[in-house]
């Protein structure tokens, strides 16, 4: 066995160890998330879900109807992505705290708007008072690949301070669209 084969095996072992570590973390996160619910709540949710799925399958005539509905939803999604320019590549959610009337979740979201990449990380606090649910975004962190423009950096800093996600998405959509136009114009004159 030569040195190259030995190194390849070592690299493969390290890659497998890393994969095991990541899967273990993911398993522990799922275990932690499930500990927030009592056995009674889990059983109630399962029964509720079974009742919903049985009612849904009775309401649809056939598998072809479900496929048609799925195709319709995919068409609508692609239409919305075309209009807004947003394409989300990943999303993860982790429940940090859950009580009777308060839930804290940590979200990670990444994607592209036209050609500009972005990543968001934030905590979402949901509080329920009677029948009213209020949500608050906190610990917002935004990472954008193209922040060479100082105005974009200032804008991102302001959004991180106030935690206003709708304004971020609206502004990013407009900025990214005009960013594409500027880029095309400069290429035209080169």
UniProtKB/TrEMBL annotation:
Record has Coiled coil as a keyword: yes
Pfam families: CENP-P
Keyword Coiled coil belongs to the record: yes
Residues forming coiled coils: 6-33
Signal sequence coordinates: none
Alphabetically ordered keywords of this record: Coiled coil
BP GO terms, sorted: CENP-A containing chromatin assembly
One Gene Ontology CC term in the entry: chromosome, centromeric region
Name of the protein this chain belongs to: CENPP protein
Source organism per UniProt: Prunella himalayana
Gene symbol of the encoding locus: Cenpp
